[in-house]
Amino acid sequence: MGMRSANIYLSPCEIIREINDLCQSDSDKDLQIRKRCHKLERMNKAMSDKVHEIDPKYSHSWPERNDNEADDWKLRIDRNYKVDK
Q1: In tens digits, what is the pLDDT along the chain, a chain of 85 residues?
Q2: Does any domain span residue 55?
């Protein structure tokens, strides 16, 4: 999916995106956090792909739903939303 997306479930990647949402200033600290969020999301996606090979439906078991999905999409598709690699 990537950092500029949203998920209806509070998956690990969605939690990483929420952290990135909170670090949108131009401070060095926020920049470092966004870089780590990007790296962690890539690592999590690789792990998720492996788990899906074992159990294709494992992600259907996330208990919590993301009630803010529509707002998350609006925030993350804005051209000023910061994502660092």
Answers
A1: 688 899 888 889 999 999 999 999 999 999 999 999 999 999 999 998 999 899 988 877 778 999 999 999 999 999 999 998 7
A2: yes
Our count of domains for the chain comes to 1
Kindly report the number of other CB atoms within 10 A of residue 81's CB atom: 14
Is residue 39 in a domain? yes
**Residue 7 is assigned to a structural domain of this protein:** no
**Tally of CB atoms within 10 A around 13:** 23
- In which domain, by residue range, is 60 found? 12-77
Distance of CA 10 to the CA centre of its chain: 9
